[in-house]
């Protein structure tokens, strides 16, 4: 399964799972644009970036409210103020 995070203002607002076949059956980064096209073909809008459930790329698995660091090209946990 492939996982994609919806990014708004560099914040993860949603995460969805799609079949590997819908990403061309390949590996990241080649699979990302294919998966993005599949998501768009389902009528789902927004910026969707592939994330790794096992943290093999982009720092960590993206969770709701995590941040996307554009310069580092990775997901990071949101800092929670006490």
**Total helical segments:** 1
Taken as a percent bin, the fraction of beta residues is 25-35%
Ranges with pLDDT <50 over ≥5 residues? none
Number of strands: 5
Average per-residue pLDDT, rounded, comes to 95
Order of helices and strands: EEHEEE
Class inferred from helices and paired strands: alpha+beta
Rg from alpha-carbon coordinates: 12 Å
**Helix percent band:** 10-25%
Overall form: globular
First-residue to last-residue Cα separation: 36 Å
How many strands, what sense, and barrel or not for the largest sheet? 3 strands, antiparallel
Q: Numbering strands along the chain, what is their spatial order in the largest sheet? A: 2-1-3
Structural domain count: 1
Please describe the structure with a list of short key phrases separated by commas or semicolons:
82 residues; alpha+beta; three-stranded antiparallel beta sheet; two-stranded antiparallel ribbon; 1 helix
Could you please describe the fold and organization of this structure?
Helices cover 13% and strands 32% of the residues. It is of the alpha+beta class. It is globular and about 45 Å long. Strand 4 and strand 5 form a beta hairpin. The model has no long low-confidence stretch (mean pLDDT 95). The N and C termini lie far apart (36 Å). It has one domain.
Short description:
Helices cover 13% and strands 32% of the residues. It has 1 helix and 5 strands. Strand 4 and strand 5 form a beta hairpin.
